[in-house]
Amino acid sequence: MSEISASNEINVSASSRRSGEVDTSRMSFMEKCGFGAGDAACNLLFNPITMFLSFFYTDIFGLTPAVVATMFLVVRLFDAFFDPFYGAWLDNTRSSVGRYRKWMAVFTIPFAISCLIMFYTPDVGYTAKVIYAFVTYTLLSILYSCVNIPYCSLGNVVTSNPIDRVSCQSFRFIGAGLASLFCTLTLLPLVGFFGGEDRASGFFWTLSLFGTLSIFLFLFCFFYTRERIVPPQNAPKEDLIGSFKKIIHNDQWLSCITIMFLDCLPSFIRGAVSIYFAIYILGFDEVSASLFLTVGIVSGIVGAYLTPVLTRKWCKVTIYKAVKLVCIVLSLVLFAIPSDQIVLIYIVVIVLNIIHSIGTPIVWSYIADVDDYGEWKLGQRASGLCTSGNLFTLKVALAVGGGLVGLVLSVTGYEANVAEQSETAIAGIYALMTWIPAIGYLLTFLATQFFYKLNRQTMAKISRDLYGTV
Fold first, then answer.
1. Which residues have CB under 8 Å from 50's CB, separation 6+?
2. What is the mean pLDDT of each run of 10 residues along the chain (470 residues)?
3. Per-residue confidence (pLDDT) for residue 285, from 0 to 100
4. Nearest 5 degrees, angle CA 189-CA 170-CA 369?
5. Rounded to the nearest 10 degrees, what angle do helices 126-157 and 383-411 cross at?
6. Which residues are CB-contacts of 257 (< 8 A; sequence separation ≥ 6)?
7. What is the DSSP letter of 225?
């Protein structure tokens, strides 16, 4: 069947492999909505960070692109190394509401507060602003991990059913897309409404509103989901070093985190530079720029909706690889379109975002599959560590992507708040929007093709061995 089953010498019977209770009931529609609400809550605050934070720091807060690039790289790398230790700690916690949901709820309000503090612009000198930005961005990054790692780990234990795993991830990214759509449609107009000419004040009050909404969505997720895969109450706790030693031997986890890193790069780079592309390449004002970003978000929702439809019929790994190949072509097509062909650019961006977003729920469903594989092969279920490892690489990708955006803008001579950019700056924005993401898509395809082995047939065998189901 596969290299995995042929080489697996540790695999034993289903009854001796199960770690604790496994509720094999299917997820209800409301529970999937609750799970999706969790990522909607995350994206109400994370979307402004990925799409507007670079613009906020350079054009409103007043930092140079070089400082922003350095800050993104340093803080995100520091935060990324925090994640695996936190995830391993979560795996050893126990509570009446599960290992992960509790901590998502505990850190919800602190995370929301940290976000609005980060978007506050103090009336101080430049050096003090740099220090303030570093401190507040670091605080937000840590608290985001404290909320997001439990939430993402919940996706590994909320169901053992392979169809529901993709479906709940689809609901998740539809929720994320709707939250991103709300942010994209309303953020800049609300900034103007709350702040008028004072855009710094407008950003602060707008993020205060978003933070309040996110708290309610997190609580909805907490109350309408449950953890179906739980360890026995008397299960021995794994020390951190032992957990790390075991998971390093999970070769598919190593493949998964590599794919996650490569998958995120095109998304983060294009997401961060889209507003620059809309304003300085297409010549849009803030309202038209919001519309351009909105079209991309709506397209992403459509793509996430299509994912479970496609994966019911075909192997999700095959679909994922096909998605990456199509995205390469579309990215290069976008590069070749003249900037005055607005309608054509819109069409390509819409199709590109739809295709790209078909793959997003799939790559996140890999984490639960990898967790099953680790239990099947090594006798270790480490949902928090599996998830935090993927979030570690996601944040490294965020650091590299954000740093690359700042570096390219700085090297090519980007100047904030000017009517027209230089030819080199325009070329830099085009590169970040098109052919640099195309390279990321190519590397993602190659990593999946040669290293990721958990296809439909292999996962069917693992599911039979662990849960007695397919």
1. 268, 271, 272, 398
2. 44 43 73 91 83 82 86 77 80 79 91 89 91 92 88 82 80 85 82 86 90 93 86 60 74 91 91 87 83 84 89 92 97 92 94 94 88 82 75 80 85 82 90 94 96 90 74
3. 83
4. 135
5. 140
6. 389, 390, 392, 393
7. -
Whole-Å CA distances, 195 to 182, 188, 189, 249, 276: 19, 10, 10, 53, 22
pTM, to two decimals? 0.71
Q: What is the DSSP letter of 22?
A: B
Contact 250, 377 (CB under 8 A): yes
Contact 193, 10 (CB under 8 A): no
306, 354 in Cβ contact below 8 A?
A: yes
Q: Are 40 and 156 in contact (CB under 8 A)?
A: no
- 77 and 398 Cβ atoms separated by less than 8 Å: no
**Residues whose CB falls within 8 Å of the CB of residue 169, separated by 6 or more in sequence, listed in order:** 155, 307, 361, 362, 364, 365
Q: Please, are residues 250 and 374 in contact by the beta-carbon 8 Å criterion?
A: yes
Query: How many CA atoms, within 13 angstroms, populate the side-chain half-sphere of residue 461?
Result: 17
Q: In the numeric block, which tokens belong to residue 62?
A: 């007043």
* C-beta of residue 301 within 8 angstroms of C-beta of residue 181: yes
Distance CA 202, CA 354 (A): 32
Token readout for 63 is 């930092």
